[in-house]
Amino acid sequence: MNTAIQSALDTAIDSLKQQGVLPQDFQNNSSLSRTRDRSHGDFASNIAMMAAKAAGQKPRDLAEKILAALPQVDVISKAEIAGPGFINFFLNDDQRFAVLDQIIAQTSQFGRSQQFNGKKAQVEFVSANPTSSLHVGHGRGAAYGMTVANLLEAIGWTVQREYYVNDAGRQMDILATSTFLRYLELCGQSLTFPSNGYRGAYVTEDIAQKIFDQYGNQFNRPVDAVFANVPSDAVYAAELDKDGNKVLLSGDKERHIDGLIHNAQQLLGAENYRLFHQTALQVILDDIKDDLADFGVTFDQWFSEATLKDKITEALEVLDQNGFLYEKDGNIWFKSTNFGDEKDRVVKRANGQTTYFAADIAYHLNKFQRGFDEVINIWGSDHHGYISRVKAAIDALGFDSKKLTVLLVQFVSLWRGSEMVQMSSRSGQFVSLRELREEVGNDAARFYYVMRKSEQHIDFDLDLAVSQSKDNAVYYIQYAHARICRLFNNFSSQLGEIRFEELNAHKAQLTSEAESELITKLAAYPDVLARAAQQYEPHQLGNYLKELAGQLHGWYDTHPIIKIFAEQPELAKARLLLAYCVQQVLKNGLSLLGVSAPETM
């Protein structure tokens, strides 16, 4: 119906162009939106205010000319001018009730569209280093990425969900060496564990123990040899502090761990070192996959960074052929400043090693070669400065960087009462996603992770997430769904089988203001869904469901159904129909957010 109104407006604008009221080159960038208050109509257009300057007229005067040029449209009962120049459209009753017919006919598909049918999008999200369990910050990226993908599919996109596995970088070497040191401890040796190694109990209990159980002392090496010629990671003052502890002055933690990695590789040999590396990778990756699957987050592809070796060579060759590489101080540099980056970037060091950035260039080359119409990267907010250089590389490779959308996800602060929990993946002192889910449940976690714009910080309130009150939005919405389920169970047990065809025959009985508002709210769902998807903002859908649940509760408390069935059966049936339609839309929306719609609570 909004398409019919927009078409009528377009016709009116074309007519005014022909009359010379508007210039021929006028571009109609106005919006047609549903009104919040039905006393202002069902739809409102700001076309008169948008076109007033081009016409050289006051908005209300132009609005009158637009109404005069508006062709007759069956769905419109009337149109009027409001405020500074809005044009409000009122639908006839048949059209207002049409949404109930659509919901009954389309059920779980109501609200979905094929607007972008034939278009392919890739959404890459989470992509956390496989060096520890996922923490609550990763959980936000997981919930947000999965929901964005769901929303895009709901408007017709074919979506590939992808996790980029960083299995070839230095962090994996630190994890492998940390595992080796814990293995040596299991062999009975004593050592001082590096302060910037991975210190969580999982390194010993889940990885090192697995290797020890399978191979025993086979890889035992002298601790002195492991620490030979390795710079200390700490320098202490000669005197002690008041508690008798050494005072740390300085240290070289990075050279210390790099020395340990080098010695571990030498002492174990390539094959055995790879055993530690791959065992650590697989244990952590399996844990991540299980954790995400239990959270309702799944991927179509787990892309290994380690497979990019040939692609890195290809990417650098393309950049070189296109004239965007040069050598300086033995390093190979990419001319990213040619594309607006703040400085050029090294892609290959003098020692022949390629950089992380070179791998990212190769990964995006691979993405664009796969033919996606839209590539969406969901990164942590600390990657903000990385966007310009990646887009520069895409353009330099000969692709269109406008097809890349980078969505940044801000950090999460987890609060227990008045205390904020600190997190550190190397020390192991962090709250994992799994622990959060166990405490508040999947539904609350999925819902509250997406209820703010991705670039806004979240203070996750544990007490609110588990409360059973109207202040807890996810509980409030789920309770609305369960309340309607209970209504239908009671109706069936008292009055027999429900036939929706019979209920639908009485929808004209829905004449109260609250019922009109509910119907209007239901009709707005497809537009809200489309807007949330196209703007990558799941919170718009969450807020809509919260408002719909609020209207349902208010209506349900004041509009009896079963109690009036004997005296007003037609009205009771109409209200049952409305309740069912609200239930279906709540269920549809919750499903897209990855939240369950319980039938009892």
UniProtKB/TrEMBL annotation:
A molecular function (GO) term: arginine-tRNA ligase activity
One annotated Gene Ontology cellular component of this protein: cytoplasm
Subcellular location field: Cytoplasm
Chief location category: cytoplasm
Catalysed reaction, written as an equation: tRNA(Arg) + L-arginine + ATP = L-arginyl-tRNA(Arg) + AMP + diphosphate
One Pfam family matching this protein: DALR_1
Residues of the Arginyl tRNA synthetase N-terminal domain: 3-91
InterPro entries recorded: Arg-tRNA-ligase, Arg-tRNA-synth_N, Arg-tRNA-synth_N_sf, ArgRS_core, DALR_anticod-bd, Rossmann-like_a/b/a_fold, tRNAsynth_Ia_anticodon-bd
Span of the annotated motif 'HIGH' region: 128-138
The keyword NADP is annotated on this UniProt entry: no
BP terms from Gene Ontology: arginyl-tRNA aminoacylation
EC number: 6.1.1.19
Quaternary state and interactors: Monomer.
The protein, known as: Arginine--tRNA ligase
Organism whose genome encodes this protein: Alkanindiges illinoisensis
Taxonomic placement: Bacteria, Pseudomonadati, Pseudomonadota, Gammaproteobacteria, Moraxellales
Originating gene: argS
